[in-house]
Amino acid sequence: MQNADRTIASPVAPITRASRPFLDSRHLLAVANILVCSFLLAPILIVIVTSFSADQFMQFPPSGWSLRWYVEFFNDRRLMDGLLLSLALASVTAVVAGVAGSLAAFAMTRMTSRFGGLIHSLHTAPLITPGVVTGLSMLIFFSAMGLRGSFTALLIGHVVLSIPFVVIIVVAGLQSFDKSIEEAAISLGASRPVAFLTVTIPAVKTSMMSAAVFAFLNSFDEVVVTLFLPGPRTKTLPVAMFEYIQHNLDPLPAAISTVLIAIAMLVVFVTARFGTIGRIMGQRL
Amino acid sequence: MAELSNAQPSEIVLRLAGVQKYFGSVAAVENVELAVQKNQLVTLLGPSGCGKTTTLRMIAGFEFPTAGQIVIDGKDVTYTPPNKREIGIVFQSYSLFPHLRVSDNVAYGLKRRGVPKEERVQRVREALQLVDLGQFGDRLPNELSGGQQQRVALARAIVIRPKILLLDEPLSALDAKLRQRMRLEIRHLQRQIGMTTVLVTHDQEEALSMSDHIVVMNKGNVEQEGTPSSIYRQPKTSFVASFIGETNLFKGEIVHAANVDGLLVFRADCGFEACIRKADNLEPGRQLLLSLRPETLTISPSQGEAEASPNALRGTVAGINYLGARTVFEIKTPTRDLMVSVQNDAGSEAPVAFVEGQTIRLSWTPDACQIVEIN
Fold first, then answer.
1. C-beta neighbour count of B229 within 10 angstroms
2. Residue among B61, B62, B109 minimizing CB distance to A188
3. Is this complex scored with an ipTM above 0.90?
4. Where is the ABC transporter domain (chain B) (predicted)?
């Protein structure tokens, strides 16, 4: 039997609000966050503000306001062709890279080969390869193939650049997918293909959608590799804009940029309606 | 299967004959013989890595045996794919389809079987009512608690009226209170609908409370099988004795000295002697183990005189653990420590009878002595 002596008072003073330092880690975090957000958002805000300029030249802040540069943009035949090409290219890229990348992700999460890690690295290699190197290699390759300057060459290039995003996102989704769910379906009478279509695909549908959106956005603003594949039918909007800037100093590119931002946000928010915004923005819903 | 209570010849639904499974050169299952009778609940019990889960996966068809035969309902299904076996399975992680509502989860197996819509709706409703989730058909799995998800998984498995229901550690993800309730519920349901069931678990309490028949597995082999009480009361090996329940094991040998009552004498290496009941395999001279369950030992104040009588030991109380319904004493003897469990009387303060450091006498009856093989 223990005889606890409870008469000894606690020597530790209670922690009060006042004893906290004036500038603790939470304040520092807040300051750091505000700074980072400013650095991220300020350039975009400047571009958007400039796009509504009435000036003849790009300057900040603008001396007057107008929508003339938007009018100019929508009336420019070459730029509008670029916009349509970009939208078409990004859409096809999203579908092709989404399907191919997802299939690769399925294979990678299921294979038992000891080369699995290597194969995964190869699929994400375009992410770390310098853009100019990829561009040059594609230029040489497509010239040899006789495909230089074609839509096909552009599509293949963009698909290659987008597949890493798809693979990373879908592999992450599949890793959190419990394989016994598929086994449950099989034990209930489904064949492997039926279980895959009715259970596995729906369960990772969200990651696949997010992956396709990323592929779309990645293709939509691709410049470096596209510049290496010049041709009459390869002038995407970013490339057309890049060329425009080399000869003109008016605020038209700011208007184009604002439209690009608007389209990107539209794509993200439309897919958000299908419940994918959480994954895209890396948040939990 | 000799110990089965009802002697009437029952139909064997599942039989495993000489089943082996090797992954490369590693044996997950070395040799398993198993016969499961209709409407019985048979448990494969063992520590992780004993081969119980691999055995279950072979019964389900997710793994094919390296050698041996699996027969369900008289049909050889050794290499039949899992979707053709008519088996219901409940996984540890529930494995509900996250994108389907509860009723569609339950209906999944019926759809695959082409059951017409009206019958399907009817059977889903019945299955959900059976597991007490009649109101939850429209929910998504993630809107349910763990216990409710477990019941949906159960409904989904039984609605297809499988020949065998397989339960793979079905309760291990639940908290202790819920686990106890689910044990009773599953057992009740299994009896009510008469479902041949194979349960895999590492939890000996779960096995003892739910099973008709327990198969204790160790290192890919069947160590012992029998009814829960026979497994608990007559363990044949030290592995079974120490894995199921708690026990005090003493190394020693039989010394040939049967006395008037037909008792043999076992001499423990640590010095004391115990009178034990005669049995066939107890020839003198063999190294064996004596198992004494903590609840079969009687604790009494030491009289101080020489206590060299058999079936008794002297020791001191080293620890007292009051557990409500019973008290577990840790007793120190000159050679080793052992555990004694004493049922507490309602209304009396049992542990007060002994204090730490007190010298006491431990005694037991010949029936308490169980001789087990060393392994």
1. 11
2. B109
3. no
4. 14-244
